[in-house]
Design a protein that fits this description.
The chain is an alpha+beta fold and 96 residues long. It has a single domain (3-95), classed as Glutaredoxin (3-Layer(aba) Sandwich). Helix content is 48%, strand content 19%. It is built from 4 helices and 4 strands; from the N terminus they run H-E-H-E-H-E-E-H. It has helices at residues 3-14, 28-39, 53-63, 85-95, and strands at residues 19-23, 44-48, 70-73, 80-83. Strands 2-1-3-4 form a 4-stranded mixed β-sheet, with helices on both faces. The longest helix is centred in the first third of the chain and has 12 residues, at 3-14. The termini are far apart.
């Protein structure tokens, strides 16, 4: 496993929530995502790229996703990459 994936897996294992979310400051989609998850009663652990810039490179390398938010479903004990806000919105509608 490459180092970039190890960081995500470590964060997922440390979280005791439904989702793992990477965000940035001044991100409207990040705010919308948090409102969406809160509104559905779903919990999340947030890591902010502006506060932890070293995480950004690792997450981009692991997922290929260059914008925020970056969302993982960790409810099943597996770390499943979903995507950004639009993908998560569709995913939540299908799984809720």
């Amino acid at each position: 496993m490459v180092m970039s994936e190890e960081i995500i897996v470590k964060h997922a294992m440390e979280a005791s929530t439904d989702f793992l979310v990477y965000t940035g400051n001044f991100c409207g989609y990040c705010k919308a995502l948090k409102r969406l998850l809160d509104g559905k009663g779903l919990t999340f652990t947030e890591h902010n790229f502006d506060e932890h810039p070293d995480y950004r490179t690792a997450v981009v390398q692991a997922t290929g996703h260059r914008t925020v938010p970056v969302v993982f479903d960790i409810r099943s004990g597996q770390t499943m990459f979903i995507g950004g806000f639009d993908e998560t919105n569709r995913y939540i509608r299908k799984t809720s």
